[in-house]
Amino acid sequence: MDNGFIILSIIALLFLSIYGYTYGSIALAKIKQKKAEKKELMLEEIRLEERKRKQAIRDEKLRKQNKRREEINHELKLLEEMKLNNEKLNKMRVEKMKQKKVG
Predict the structure, then answer these.
(1) pTM to 2 decimals?
(2) Which of 35, 12, 16 is closest to 27 using CA atoms?
(3) Whole-angstrom distance between the N-terminal and C-terminal Cα of the chain?
């Protein structure tokens, strides 16, 4: 009877070790899967932050470009006005000179 109890406990220990090995590998796979998901979420978050940073840089460049465009347009308008004023001034001078010659 004593030997039967030892054999029975060895068989039980064998089944427990098989169950533990099987469950352990499943648990390990779940842990690895959770780690991979966590890593993927972290990478996605990093990608999102990078996209936001790059978008902010693009927005800043666009803002500067639009500001420069407005400055150039303003300068062009001023030059055009100066040109018109010079033309008017020249016409007035020509008219004065004509009046001096006539008069």
Answers:
(1) 0.56
(2) 35
(3) 150
